[in-house]
Specification:
By secondary structure, the protein is an all-alpha fold. It has helices at about 1-35, 40-70, 75-105, 110-115, 120-150. The protein has one domain (about 20-75, about 90-150). About 90% of the residues lie in helices and about 0% in strands. The chain is globular. The model has no long low-confidence stretch (mean pLDDT about 80).
């Protein structure tokens, strides 16, 4: 029973740590694209593509690590994921304070136009398709690792 709860905790911690890292890179990329005046249509599609790629690659590396490791201390891995999550949240916080204010101050028109952009509902569409793709890809990844593990 203790191992079952450790596995559940490991999955939850892995999920929040990996998604937090991918999201941090996503917000940094959005600001980078706004600074370099890339068209909003491309930004919406490109950041979803990168976000989903990072998320899927992160889970692939995590599952590969668990599969290759013969003896696993789940509590240590959980602790490392929690530390990774806290550090990532701190990076997001300080990035927003230091860089985010600078972006809003110097690129206010572009920044607010990006977040108000609704050209052909592209933002909503790309986000919805990205969510569906992400969960579908993670499901296939988990199934593949489970099938090959037996």
């Amino acid at each position: 029973m203790k191992k079952d709860f450790s596995l559940i905790g490991l999955g939850i911690c892995a999920w929040i740590a990996i998604i937090s890292i991918a999201y941090t890179i996503r917000i940094i990329l959005i600001d980078f694209f706004i600074i370099y005046n890339i068209r909003f249509t491309y930004i919406h599609l490109f950041y979803e593509l990168i976000y989903n790629s990072l998320f899927i690659i992160g889970f692939y590396i995590f599952l590969k690590y668990l599969k290759d490791k013969k003896t696993t201390n789940y509590i240590t891995i959980i602790r490392n994921f929690i530390i990774c999550f806290v550090v990532t949240q701190a990076i997001q916080f300080f990035y927003t304070i230091e860089v985010g204010d600078n972006i809003i101050e110097n690129y206010h028109d572009s920044w607010s136009s990006f977040y108000d952009f609704g050209g052909l509902y592209l933002n909503t569409f790309s986000y919805s398709i990205g969510e569906i793709f992400r969960y579908f890809a993670i499901g296939i990844l988990l199934y593949t690792f489970y099938k090959n593990g037996n």
